[in-house]
Amino acid sequence: MPNHTHDYDLFVIGAGSGGVRAARRAAARGMRVAIAEASRLGGTCVNLGCIPKKLMFFAAGFADAFADAAGFGWRVGEPRFAWPDLIAAKDAEIARLNRAYGWMLEGVGAEVLHGRARIADRHTVELEGERFTTGAIVVATGSRPFVPEVPGAGLGVVSDAIFSLPELPRRVAIIGGGYIAVEFAGILHGLGAAVTLFHRGPLPLRGFDDDVRATLAGELVKRGIELRLNTEVGRLESSRDGVRVVDRSGGSTPFDLVLWATGRVPSTGDLGLEEIGVELGGNGEVVVDEYSETTVPEVYAIGDCTDRLALTPVAIAEAMALVETLAGNPTPIRHDNVPTAVFSRPEVGAVGLTEAAARAAGHPVVVFRSTFRPLLHRLAGRDQATMMKLVVDGATDRVLGVHMVGPDAGEIIQGFAVALTCGATKAQLDATVAIHPTAAEELVTMREPVED
Ligand code: NDP
Q1: Which end of the chain has a smaller Cβ tally under 10 Å, C or N?
Q2: Hey, whose CA ends up nearest to atom 35 of ligand 1?
């Protein structure tokens, strides 16, 4: 692809998870690469998503640890939590990561350009009044929170704001029932806030296995998070006692903070995409083929802005496949068996098909399920269930899905994702020797299927 009539071989717009990986990989393969970023390096994941969220998830976890310690003989004084200390420590770590991203890019020779980029034509990008020519363009501009248009919506905040609140709010309403809603419900509740979750559906986490959804909902309630399910929020109102969430059946409750966690939309506005003929979908997403190429040749898009699967490791996988393609080895990207974890409390982990999806796809489904109280919680007297479930094709014995609610679900499911990627059968799980005593051993010792 090198064509020295252009300033660069590859111009990447957006230095988030996907963009940074594409730029680093391409530069390491000898391409002349520029990467433009209007904000901080690292994108949503590093600055306003996965990383600061996980740090706050860890912080909230100490509440359980302090509470459980007494059952193991510890005498712990009254623990006190200082929100500003957590935010300062988190900010320092994120600043370190921002610098590390800069070094990594410069280390492989990619040029980092600060500012907002706009595509002028399929081989020209404008940035801060300068024009750069390039062989190919990669759009990796990510996504931003979506807020429904209800009266008073602006009285609420989106997840971006949580990471820099001056203090921990006392009463929090979270609207939505997806990843961000249940993750922040656990974090803010764990840190000491009273949390009410308003969700329009019957259970949180639509798209996850129904046993996962029901188990998680039950555990959230046991922890003291109030769930208002099948509840549509009609408007937000300002009042003397805080921001009131008014639901469509007329209920009105005051809160110190209202968080919209109602999904994210691709950030594809004002990039010049449609002007050069790039097709956008109904959500504003860049339409791409399996090689991440848009409807304009040599203009590519990866990550959240394509609205395929909005997960950092997926954006990275798309970036790696794309650079292979650009290097002359056409590599399609597939999105099956992508494992995922929700850092709620308790945590959720899943890979493969849900029971409902497996049945809908016509598999003769056999289900194995185990619900138990882990050893960790016995002495602590913590009433928290762990649920594990295998969805198996009864004809081929292939494991189609592994689902879990419980501590370390993300860590556990990562390993089972390898097994599913290798096409594991139930017989192979049965032949796997357990590690005792662990919770994960349950996944290789379930012998009796659930009766239909
Ligand atoms: P999700 O798509 O996961 O959830 C959105 C939620 O908002 C759903 O419960 C949805 O309800 C609800 N909703 C949507 N529109 C409305 C509306 N108009 N009124 C009321 N409720 C509404 O989005 P998130 O913002 O939580 O997260 C975005 C994405 O980011 C995730 O899907 C995931 O891909 C990624 N992410 C991944 C994380 C991880 O890997 N741990 C963590 C956080 C985010 P319904 O179900 O009825 O549609």
Answers
A1: C
A2: 310
